[in-house]
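Lab notebook page, bench 4
Experiment: in silico fold of construct C2
Operator: M.H.
Input chain length: 422 residues
Purpose: comparison with the prior construct
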Amino acid sequence: MRTMDRIYRYRMTTTSGGNLSIRDDNGDIWISPARVDKGNLTPKDIVCVRADGTVDGLHPPSSEFPFHKAIYAARPDIRAIVHAHPVALVAFSICRSTPNPRLFHQAFRVCRKVGFAPYACPGSDALGESIAKTFTQGCDSVILENHGVVVGGDSMADAFQRFETFEFLGKTLVKANRLVKAYDLPGIRYLKDEDFAQALDRGAPFESYDPPAPTAREQELRKELCEFVKRGCRQRLLISTEGSFSARVCKDTFLVTPTGKDREHLRAEDIVLVSANGRETGKMPSTAARAHQAIYERHPGVQSIVFAHPIVATAFSVTDSNLDVRTIPESYVFLYDVQRVPYGLHYGDASKLASYVSESAPTALLENDGVVITGKTILDAFDRLEVLESTAEAVIDGNAIGDISTMPDAVIDELCAAFNLG
């Protein structure tokens, strides 16, 4: 119920579209109901189809139950299924195409093998056979021809993460293709096998240590980080298990989001303290923690850092198009000129990244890996993230209208003087 609420709230399905299921240890399948408002499901609405075929619930099971059953029969390792009609993935389904997960190392790792299932009538056994056959080929993320998408996982959390990442991949590719056409670029940049190997090198792991009792400032920063991370997820600026957000506590100590935890459900106690002594005992910081640390060490004025994957700005990172933010005064005053960081620079020796961002260069595109933003406060960093994504979207939309007119050097000089920009 909570997962369907989240999918509906994120506008990844409609009131009548999509269905979810979980297979329990008894072989019973718990599935969302047919013809019930997806935006107002309650626990009592969920239907149980027993292993013997009997049905327990207030409503009939989803009309797509046959393909859920077929997938579970074909893949005993799958314990949860998500089916929906998110716009970007429907676009691929009606073009008889699949998103290439080699766009990002995260998408390649999470979505795994992507498949395409030929069309069959919704609710039919033929559709179940078509989808199940594709899943037996080792696919966990499947585009349904002229229909939508189905993903499977070993739990509902795993299936949702895969579905969300798949949809993020599809949306980014749609925006990137628009950039390629607008600027007549050679194409979208995809990662090679050696690039994926490079992404695994995040520097030496942190040793654990027991920090002193948190100060009032630390407790407030933990709470504030959680609030802005959740806001970022709900605004689709962050996805549930990717990206990281941090805040400096003192000279060589900072708080950062953990690795492997759902960002929207973070609690203050989940945030990880990192210092020169190592990481807080019993917690694992974001895999980008070394990069955060390197930026803080080099730039004492930076108080907060966010690594994120906002869809439109990320589309610029996978193409050779320049994100010129000299569009409106707010964009330039908040972002300055956006830097571009070569792929993988922040892996291994994270100190190399610190030369691309600073107080006077707070925003950068990470090639095929989203964006990095610095700020004087958590609010400042988050505000810049919002402005960056809005600016990127305005640039793409502007190209659909006509030639974009950016502010001339004289206006930029005036802004720099008026707002004391370095």
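Observations: The mean pLDDT is 94. The longest helix spans residues 156-183.
Next step: discuss at group meeting.
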